[in-house]
Amino acid sequence: MSARESWAYLSRVVEGPSRHLQDLFREGHSADDIAAAIRNRKPWLGPLLGETASRHGWERATEDLARIEELGGRLITPEDTEWPRRELDQAFGFAASGLSEHIRSHQADAVPPHALWVRGGSLARAIAQSVAVVGTRAVSRYGMEATRMITGGLSSHQWSIVSGGALGIDTAAHEEVLQKQGTTVMVAACGLDRAYPARNQPLFDQIASSGSGVVVSEYPPGIPPQRHRFLTRNRLVAALTQGTVIVEAAWRSGALNTLSWASALGRVAMAVPGPVTSANSLGCHDRIRDGRAQLVTSSDDIRALLGGIGELDLEKQYELQFPGTAPQGLSRNELRVYDALEENRDRDTEEVAATAGLPLALTVHLLVDLGKQGLVLRNGTRWRRNTPGDQEV
Predict the structure, then answer these.
(1) Which of 4, 17, 238 is nearest to 107 (CA)?
(2) Could you give the 3-state DSSP secondary structure of residue 299?
(3) Which tens digit of pLDDT belongs to each residue from 266-325?
(4) Which domains does the chain have, with CATH numbers?
(5) What phi and psi values does residue 138 have, to the nearest 5 degrees?
(6) How far apart are CA 242 and CA 153, in angstroms?
(7) DSSP of 180-226, one letter per residue?
């Protein structure tokens, strides 16, 4: 069995999230080692032995990989360059740190996925600068207009929108971004050969074929949508983004679960206030009133809240805070672009984007902003860092 087939096997027999599997990875065991041990029921697996007792005979790795290829997709793992390592390490590292006061950060499901099934563009690039926008399925006209206004404004500033593909707010968010030719990511609660809801199949296909959009799931082909999988999916929506915005949510709305996960994973939780006459916004108002969500009314509010978010690594933060140079005030993505440039050599925009690991459109947007700050010089379609005495060409 190849390494890719071992990962596919683990994806099917170990339904994520699995703290026991993650513990074995941290101990240095490979996917091949663990897959073989599960098949042969090795005692050193510990609790994972019981966790896989009913599924260890599910030998469908070859079929699953063939099926995802038929769909134009692929399986990605922590061994792949497009794995969103930075976002997942940051989110679940925060949950494991004990700094979170939210109860779900202490539960077994506050661990990262071990594999992801993907259709569309690069997942790592798609979420490099992203916000989750979620809300009720029973959307009102107000909720629809607010969603389109917010997602359209964020998309115009090169922010990707992540949501769950449900009817209502989720659908409005995805559709608005596609109309603006931006980047949107749909996180599914079932295998990618299924569409839930079925009527959104054309929307999901459009996202996957848009060039930069992504449809992603923790579940291998054939896995059906079930209630517990939507809750698991919500943690991934929150983890992949810098913050979560809830537009409309009733008192017991399931969308509030995603907002709770944002807080548990150290992300920014935000809520849009609604009309006081509408029960559709009771959940939003409750979170705002209790201080569990920041009140936002526009894309500018959201960008202001997320613009200063940095790495959790304290040493890196000190380097950013006390370097005594102009770049100290740059955001994380601005620094990625700035660090991809050289002082004595012009670099093509595509080369800068590849080195920074960011989408081309976002890279251009950041280069223009850096140019306005006098930190970057442009020569046609080529760029370099500014140095004393240089003049823009």
Answers:
(1) 17
(2) helix
(3) 999 999 999 999 899 999 999 999 999 999 999 999 999 997 544 334 344 444 444 555
(4) 1-59 (no CATH), 103-306 (3.40.50.450), 314-385 (1.10.10.10)
(5) -85, 65
(6) 16
(7) TT--EEEEESS-TTS-SSGGGHHHHHHHHTSSS-EEEESS-TTPPP-
